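Amino acid chain
________________
===
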Amino acid sequence: RTSRRTSEKPVCDKCGKDLDNGEEKVYCPVCGTPVHKSCWEEDPVCPNESRHTEGFDWEKENKRTEIPRDPEPYKNGYVNPAAFENFTEMIENHPIVSPESGEELTCRGVKQSELVHFLGMNNFSTPRFFTIFMNMANGGKVLSLNLSAWFFMPLYHYYRRMTGPAVILTLASFILTIPSLMYQVMFMREMDTAMPDLQFGALVSITSYIMILFRIVLLLFNDYFYMRWSVNKILSLREQYKDASADEYYAALERKGNPKMMYVLGGISLILFLVYILNIFISYTGIL
């Protein structure tokens, strides 16, 4: 069915009242049907769900162009799940299906319910990552800006529980930072007598450029790396818990995937430990 109208005004298919009566609205991420947010919270099911398999598009059928949505979610990248306050529960109980086949869309073989449990059922960033991951898996997208990965590398990766990549980034960034730290010490010691070694200064410039390149790669591709890492982790856990109950499996997904500040503290501890080791090495060898 399509949205009912009164005097050419769209009405909510759940309560029958005028959609533009001042109440906050939300939109179905599959077909774009608008309903009052309060109505959706009482019954989080699209009133046109039965027509999703037909490729139903509320905007086209009602000839309204002002609704900011895309008729083919995940094909060209637009969907706004953050409009739903209880988005994760909606996805778990009513996963988004393909308009062509009517089957649930997956993220490289990972079900939507698995993905939201892994990302965090109550985490504020889950709608964003869910959308990006599904767009990448079903729409072929690779690029996605992630400013947190740029500014907070590698602590951001500890927070997202990407422990292996986080440790690698920590070691790589620390090694690349050593020339800069040593150059600063040399400069402070020699500024009253002579200029520091210019060749060493060139090494500092090279490592600085490499660090910038690292950050650019993470800025553009971190979400893609995170998607690949998450999918592999979920598939591994699925195999480990194939004989367990659904509750045990979902609990394992949340334990292994949900962001934790405790891991950030672990990352900071590792960085401080590396700095301590470097200081001992410099003092023992007398290299500076």
Notes: Residues 198-240 form the longest helix (43 residues). Residues 142 and 224 are 6 Å apart (CA to CA).
